[in-house]
Amino acid sequence: LEAGLGGRLDATNVVNQILTVITPISFDHTHILGKKIYQIAREKSAVIKNRNPTVSAPQHLYAMRVIRNSAKKHKSPLYVLGKDAKFSIKRLTLNATEIYYRGIRIKGTLKSFLPGKFQAKNMALAALSLEVLGFEKFDFKKARIEGRFEILMNHPLLVVDGAHNTLSIKSSLESMNRTGGKNFSLIFGINKDKEVRKIVKLIISVNPSYVYITKADTPRAMLPHEIESIFLNYGFSRVKSFSKVSEALRAALSRENKILVTGSFYLAGEVKSLSEKIIASNT
């Protein structure tokens, strides 16, 4: 089970789990979880409520302090990636991610067909979690996650990633740079409750060829012209807003060779549905 929002008050927190896994904590849903990293960590670490083990990704110092205190309070053994298990990236391509993993008992190469630099850390965290549960034989070659750095087309290259906070969008941009190559364009749309200005600065820092701004079909989405004005205020002019996702996608596909769609799972879902129709019409 994955907590939908935070942890302390999330519906999934009614279960009495055999293992708790805490992924990297960053700023998201701050109007509910708190504006400080330790406040968000406190909400998330509240899922630790028994003596069963806890596994954590590397965290901000303040977040890790909260997690350690919560684990200690509930007498939950804590295992941390980077301390109890380590990994290094062997290969990153648009088709696969390969790491060298050195865990509690297992050492060797692990491979998945999920692209994206962030999937290397995810795979190592999953491996540590499985080891803590007592598994010694496992692989990730059949793992599949829709909407997370998912390749929808190859010519032109069209990648969708539902990344929607500062940390995940940074990872998505890094992954596109490293596996897809530089000089890519973006189709971007985001919800109003996100750190939009910080995320826009991140996007500008990778110097995309062009940014096609649009909005998913949800009342939470920020209006495209409002996002465009933020880009323009920061001095980035290779940008245009579209009222419909279909219009933004059509414009990008007609002009670009490499496109990353990011900012919202709502947006990723719409683009995925539209691209399937385009592929079907061309076959």
Provide an overview of this structure:
The chain has 283 residues and is α/β, with parallel strands linked by helices. The chain has three domains: 11-80, no CATH class; 86-132; 150-281, Alpha-Beta Complex (Protein-Tyrosine Phosphatase, Chain A). The protein is built from nine helices and twelve strands. The protein has helices spanning 30-33, 37-45, 61-73, 118-132, 166-180, 196-205, 224-233, 245-255, 265-281, and strands at 20-22, 54-56, 78-80, 86-92, 97-102, 107-112, 150-154, 157-161, 185-188, 211-213, 239-241, 258-262. The strands form three sheets. Strands 7-8-12-9-10-11 form a six-stranded mixed β-sheet, with helices on both faces. A three-stranded parallel β-sheet has the order 1-2-3, sandwiched between helices. A three-stranded antiparallel β-sheet has the order 4-5-6, covered by helices on one side. Strand 9 (185-188), helix 6 (196-205) and strand 10 (211-213) form a beta-alpha-beta unit. The radius of gyration is 20 Å and the shape is globular. Belongs to the folylpolyglutamate synthase family. It comes from candidate division WOR-3 bacterium. Keywords: ATP-binding, Ligase, Magnesium, Metal-binding, Nucleotide-binding.
- The stretches of 5 or more residues where confidence is low (pLDDT under 50) are none
Mean residue pLDDT: 92
Strand count, sense and barrel status of the largest sheet are: 6 strands, mixed
| Rg calculated over all Cα atoms | 20 Å
CATH C-level class of the largest domain is Alpha Beta
CATH fold-level assignment of the largest domain: Protein-Tyrosine Phosphatase, Chain A
Contiguous helical run count: 9
Overall geometric form: globular
What is the domain tally?
3
